[in-house]
Amino acid sequence: MSTARKSLGTHLQELRASGRKLLLPFFTAGYPDMPTFSALLSAAEAAGADAIEIGLPFSDPLADGPAIQLSSTEALKQGVTIEAALKAAAGAGTKAPLITMTYINPVLACGAGSFAIQAAAAGISGAIFPDLPLGEEGAVGAALAQQGIDLIRLVAPTTPDERIARICQAAQGFVYLVSVAGVTGARTGLPEDLPAFVQRVRRHTDLPLLIGFGISTPALAAEAAALADGVIVGSALVNLISSAASPQAAVDNVSQLLSEMRGALDSLPAAQTEGVTP
Amino acid sequence: MSSLQAATASPSTAIKVKICGITNAADAALSLEAGAEYLGFVFANSPRMVSRESASEILASLDRSRFKAVGVFKDQSIDDIVAICGHCGLDIVQLHGDFSAADLALIRQRCARPLMLAVYPLPELYASGLELAREDSVDYLLLDARGLPFDWRLAEQAKALGKPVFLAGGLTPEIVRLACEVVQPYGVDVASGVEAGAGRKDPAAVRAFCRSVSEATAIASDRGTSGHAGHSFAPRGRFGAFGQSHGGAYVPETLVPALEALEREYQLAISDTGFQLELDGLLRNYAGRATPLYHAARLSSDLGAEIYLKREDLLHTGAHKLNNCLGQALLARRMGKRRIIAETGAGQHGVGTATVCALLGLDCVVYMGAEDVQRQAPNVQRMKLLGAEVRPVTAGTQTLKDATSEAIRDWVTNVNDSYYLIGSTVGPHPYPSMVRDFQRVIGIEARAQMLEQAGGLPDSVIACVGGGSNALGIFHAFLYDREVALLGAEAGGEGLDGAHAATLTMGRPGVLHGALSYLLQDTHGQVSPVHSISAGLDYPGVGPEHSFLKDVGRVKYHAVTDAEALAAFQMLARLEGILPALESSHALALAAKQASAQPGSRILVNLSGRGDKDLGIVTKALGLSGEVRP
Fold it and tell me: Is the pLDDT confidence value at B227 over 70?
């Protein structure tokens, strides 16, 4: 185990209580290469990330759009493994909580218990599995719990209220709101029903609500964050990395976008949506 | 010894039910009411452990003439066992763990009760366990792979000792009937398989378990009429029990409500006479069911066995796929979905889907790997002519796996107005069960046709397995026919040390496309690239029910190479004037091997599709290898 960290939930809730909107960038481990990935983590933290999501690449990422598919394929070509990714993440020395995002098969192959132990040792405080809905946690849920890693739950616009209630009851750390029915990928606008969706979830939990899928610009980040407690940004960053002329340019461009997003979030009026609205 | 003699194993008696892990009087009473004749009390360390006092109290509340009380012990001292046995007045002492022959003799003598010895059918333990079970002091055997499903055929060795054998481990109300049919044990044992929670029995599950056992018993005594009663053994999408059960629904949250709605609608549809009548009518008048059963006389004489072909190649569109397409398309229409998404490998499912969409006036988008678009060009043209949009998938290996991923991505994006018409017994629950049910018609027809035309059941039934829908379709009607061997032919590609797609032979359980099942993957859980000359078998996964049937040994799976399949293709063409699909050619190649292994036996082969689509590949392969005979 690394040094005792605050729980992810506590950390995020304290930030929220201070009036801050949360910004969670996503990076595919080992993309475009391992040193640049590490540099991206540090740069993201310097640019104002409140926690960082690390994608552990899988060969068949069926919840992901082209950007993250491409980054996963590239990372796998370079031989990125869970072990190597966690080592690099731990070695980057960031203070922001780290959260893994991966499909369930690599974790099963590694062994749920072994994965949880390795992740905890690397300082991981939360884990997201896009293909592990409520009811399928099995041994993975128990293994993570044993290591004090939060299993982050996702809710989708298609999730009915009764199921949202059950998901929120099981939720730890924060609740990941999938903004739109679809796969990950940069989009140009937010869906019309997003405010209503956030309200539906808010009724069932006081945990931070973070909106992901399609958040591509500072304006969209601010618009989404105004509805909830923060945003998760993935494909937009991966696209910047893919199109950058050099690894340094990738880091610079990512820093710039995240700084602008940070600025946009910080210029929102202080949060008034705190607590559970009965 | 005579007073302690256990009942002799006799196949004609009803299979006994032993409910184990009784912790309270209510569970004991309900078990007896449901028909259990043995109650197990666990005195060893376990979530279901009872104290000797509670056990005595429970036993005192029951009519002891109606059942036998079994005490379960594991690695406990002989003094403890003797003391508890006396205190509770047990009828049978069940022993797990390390006991020597001398220990067994001593326990039996001091307890003056029959002993039931737990034998573990695990590679390193089975032989020594059976050796110990030969001891005179052992009266019953209990087969248990430490709570996990195991290859039930191993039970034969235990039965050969001539002592009553209880089958245990991973049994549930859903699979116990199959277990009874396959193993024909003296009794079956269940604990967690009928629990509502730790140490509490679920009354409905206990009753269902006992009912399943009595159904199996009834059928065993009335052989020849079995096989038609359909049932699913996949509640909540799980095939098998406990941690290793295959299936499930590992999907993005966005799809969960759609899958739940699909399952509800499917349940309603199959109990709706109108739906059934419409489907039956289309299968008969549009698709051309029943398909013939054909005794291939020249092939039979060439191979030295009686070969029967179930002619799914004669179904409209040229493959069994249409059975499922019709069923699901009617379901989609019933659910008000106007847009259909499908994946296809060889193109047969794509053609089937495009066909039913034309028939019902639905929009159709088919995802197909770019490599498959090339090698199955005729089917691409057919789909387009039928009005479907074919979207080539250039990601990954550009074959069925990537087409399936892309179809799922489309579905997750358009879940509100689109229906995903999956083509095989793969994917998240309820697809594997639903597709299987729509394909079961193959076996139901074939079984009746065999009885009528051949005068009896086949000795073996053979089908190719990619995802596994044609195989489950024909196997299901024969699952309970213990004497019928079921054989699946997987894609052995270039051979098992080269590129192949022999998932069940070479894979390990993993999750792909929403289900836990055998999967070809590397040590890091990354899905392996696979190869088969047959696009329809070129897939790294397999349906979860096949994984279950492999685990329990009901179906044997063999890898067939590209070369063997090609040879079988030519064999059928020349001997019978039938061009089989390359997929089905794998089944034919396995049939040829089976004919050599069992000359004169009766072999039923599911000829799942016709080979017109494969002419390009076959001529090219034969031309390159120079094997075209004049």
Answer: no
Contact of B2 with chain A, judged by CB distance below 8 Å, is answered with no
CA distance B520 to B509: 8
Q: How far apart are CA B510 and CA B523, in angstroms?
A: 11
**ipTM of this complex prediction, to 2 decimal places:** 0.95
Residues in CB range of B8: below 8 A, 6 or more apart: B162, B164
Q: Rounded to an integer, what distance in angstroms lies between the CA atom of residue A170 and that of residue A152?
A: 9
- B556 and B485 Cβ atoms separated by less than 8 Å: yes
Report yes or no: B340 at the A interface, CB cutoff 8 Å: no
Yes or no, beta carbons of B524 and A109 under 8 Å apart: yes
- Residue matched to tokens 């039965």: B159
How many other β-carbons are positioned within 10 Å of the β-carbon of residue B261? 14
Tell me the three state secondary structure of residue B89.
coil
Instruction: Tell me the per-residue pLDDT of A141-186, one tens digit each, with 9 for 90 and over.
Output: 999 999 999 999 999 999 999 999 999 999 999 999 999 999 999 8
Q: Note whether B254 contacts A181, CB cutoff 8 Å.
A: yes
Around B600, how many Cα atoms within 13 Å sit in the side-chain half-sphere? 0
Among the listed ranges A23-37, A234-248, B159-173, which one has the minimum average pLDDT value? Answer: B159-173
Which residues are within 8 A (CB) of A272 and not within 5 positions of it... i.e. 6 or more apart? none
Closest partner CB to B251 (pick from A73, A106, A133): A133
Quick check: is B321 catalytic? yes
Phi, psi (rounded to 5 degrees) for B532: -150, 145
Tell me which residue in A106, A131, A156 faces B250 most closely, judged by beta carbons. A131
Rounded CA separation B546/B426 (Å) = 10
Tell me if residue B608 is catalytic: yes
Going A208 to A214 to A217 to A219, the CA torsion angle's sign is negative
Averaged pLDDT for residues B248-262: 95
The DSSP code sequence of B104-141 is: HHHHHHHHTS-EEEEE--STTTHHHHHHHHTSTTEEEE
Q: What tens digit of pLDDT does each residue of B348-381 get? A: 999 999 999 999 999 999 999 999 999 889 999 9
3-state secondary structure of B326: helix
- From the CA of A269, how many Å to the nearest CA of chain B? 32
> Looking at B215, B265, B312, B343, which residue is catalytic?
B343
Which amino acid is located at B364 in the chain? C
DSSP states of A117-165 as a string?
Answer: HHHHHTTEEEEE-TT--TT--HHHHHHHHHTT-EEEEEE-TT--HHHHH
> What percent of chain A stands above pLDDT 70?
95
DSSP state of B24: S
Dump pLDDT digits (tens) for B590-617: 999 999 999 999 999 999 999 999 999 9
pLDDT per position as a tens digit, B485-503: 999 999 999 999 999 999 9
φ, ψ at B149 (rounded to 5°): -65, 150
pLDDT confidence of residue B379: 93
Q: What's the gap in Å between the CA of A103 and the closest CA on chain B?
A: 9
pLDDT higher than 70, residue A139: yes
Q: Where are the beta strands (DSSP E) in B248-358?
A: 293-295, 306-311, 339-344
| Integer Cα distance of A252 and A260 in angstroms | 12
pLDDT value at B230 more than 60: no
Cα B252 to Cα B232: distance, rounded to the nearest angstrom: 25
d(CA A267, CA A261): 10
Whether the pLDDT of residue A57 is over 50: the answer is yes
Q: What is the spatial distance between Cα B206 and Cα B210, in angstroms, rounded to a whole number?
A: 6
Decide if pLDDT at B148 tops 80.
Answer: no
Which of A65, A125, A74 has its CA nearest to residue A99? A125
Listed by number, the residues of chain B in 398-427 with a beta carbon closer than 8 Å to a beta carbon of chain A are 401, 405, 408-409, 412-416
The answer to whether B613 touches B319, Cβ cutoff 8 Å, is: no
What's the pLDDT score for residue A165?
A: 98
The Cα-based distances of A180 to A152, A154, B60 in angstroms read 18, 12, 61
